[in-house]
Amino acid sequence: QLQLVESGGGLVQPGGSLRLSCAASGKNLDSYAIGWFRQAPGKVREGISCVPRRGNNTNYAGSVRGRFTVSRDNAKNTVYLQMNSLQPEDTGVYYCAVVLSIGQNRCAKTPVSEIWGQGTQVTVSS
């Protein structure tokens, strides 16, 4: 069974950067489109980005577009989320999950399984 483990979170000042990792085990990650989600305190979990099984047709929420970059390294069975120009409103627990594939080259920020990692905390504060 596919298992996902997020890492790379931490405390960063506004304007700073972090890179999150989503490491898979149990199955090859290249069979799945993967999305990143975050849950801020007191708010519902929101989808912020996804990367398709093939190609670079990534998908971003408006709140992070231009600041965050999702990528994958299938050889390492890992998906990354590079986060730049972080702001306090980016604070939350970040999760990765399998999301809807639209063919091989597109994805939607819609989770399609109950497989979630434990999340990694990102706190943006001065």
Question: What does the model show?
Answer:
- By secondary structure, this protein is mostly beta strands.
- Helix content is 0%, strand content 56%.
- The chain is built from no helices and 11 strands.
- Strands 2, 4, 5, 6, 9, 10 and 11 form a 7-stranded mixed beta sheet that branches.
- It is globular and about 40 Å long.
- It starts with a strand and ends with a strand.
- The model has no long low-confidence stretch (mean pLDDT 94).
Summarize the structure.
0% of the residues lie in helices and 56% in strands.
Q: What proportion of the residues form beta strands (DSSP E)?
A: over 45%
| Outline type | globular
Helical element count? 0
Alpha-carbon distance between the two ends = 40 Å
Name the helicity range.
under 10%
How would a textbook summarize the main sheet?
Answer: 7 strands, mixed
Oligomer state of the chains in this structure: single chain
Note poorly predicted spans.
Answer: none
SSE pattern, N- to C-terminal: EEEEEEEEEEE
The counted number of beta strands is: 11
Mean pLDDT: 94
Going by helix content, strand content and strand pairing, the class is mainly beta
> Whole-number radius of gyration?
13 Å
List the helices and strands and how they pair.
Blueprint: E1 3-7, E2 10-12, E3 18-25, E4 33-39, E5 46-51, E6 59-60, E7 68-73, E8 78-83, E9 92-102, E10 106-116, E11 120-124
Parallel strand pairs: 2-11
Antiparallel strand pairs: 1-3, 3-8, 4-5, 4-9, 5-6, 7-8, 9-10, 9-11
